[in-house]
Amino acid sequence: MVAVSRPSDLLKARAETNTTLTGLVLSLAGVALLVGGVGIANTMVVSVMERRGEVGLRRALGARRGQITLQFLIEAVLLGLFGGLGGAAVGVTVVYAYAAVQEWPAVVPTVWVLAGPAVAVVVGTVAGLYPALRAAQMSPTGALRSS
After folding, report:
1. Per residue in 131-141, is it b (16+ CB within 10 Å) or e — as a string?
2. Is residue 62 left, alpha or beta, with left meaning phi > 0 and alpha meaning psi from -120 to 50?
3. How far apart are CA 124 and CA 121, in angstroms?
4. What are the two backbone dihedrals, phi and then psi, of residue 121, each rounded to the nearest 5 degrees?
5. Which pLDDT tens digit goes with each residue over 35-72?
6. What is the pTM for the complete model shown?
7. What's the CA gap between 123 and 34, in Å, rounded?
8. Tens digit of pLDDT for each residue in 90-121?
9. Euclidean distance between CA atoms 143 and 20, whole angstroms
């Protein structure tokens, strides 16, 4: 028995495979973003707890709640930014290395390289919001007393 296939069948199978693979990669990226966000939030909560004395002293010396919030929020955003830049660098390196091993041309869309750190900044901002607001709500006397 002879099987006959048409080019359109192969193109359809390739498109379905690409769609499935893209969905898988995006799902993994979503999980990585969630884990990164939880990691940033955890790091910032621990940072706020360890720096109660600093927060209390700054508040006692006249720092406003907004300044405390901004300080911790900037730290969380920077964690997200550096994580995103590192992830983009590792991702591009892996793509080029894999393409070289397979003897394929490497294709890395610039928009994806830029989107990674941008999304990481958003995740850092969202993850750092609660700890930053929590730090700003500390009373100066309570924070100094507990340190």
Report:
1. bbebbbebebe
2. left
3. 5
4. -65, -40
5. 999 999 999 999 999 999 999 999 999 999 999 999 99
6. 0.83
7. 8
8. 999 999 999 999 999 999 999 999 999 999 99
9. 52
Q: What is the largest CA-CA distance in the chain?
A: 88
Amino acid letter at 112? Answer: W
Residues 9-33 have pLDDT tens digits of 788 888 899 899 989 989 999 999 9
Q: C-alpha angle 57/59/65, rounded to 5°? A: 145
Residue the block writes with tokens 């969380």: 76
Q: Answer yes or no: are the C-beta atoms of 55 and 133 closer than 8 Å.
A: no
Structure tokens at 46: 């621990």
Task: Give domain limits for the chain.
Answer: 33-146
Q: How many CB atoms lie within 10 A of CB 145?
A: 11
What does the pLDDT read at residue 123? 97
Q: Show the DSSP H helices in the chain as ranges.
A: 7-50, 52-60, 65-102, 110-136, 140-146
- In the three-class reduction of DSSP (H, G, I as helix; E, B as strand; rest coil), residue 86 is classed as helix
Contacts for 101 with CB less than 8 Å, ≥ 6 apart: none
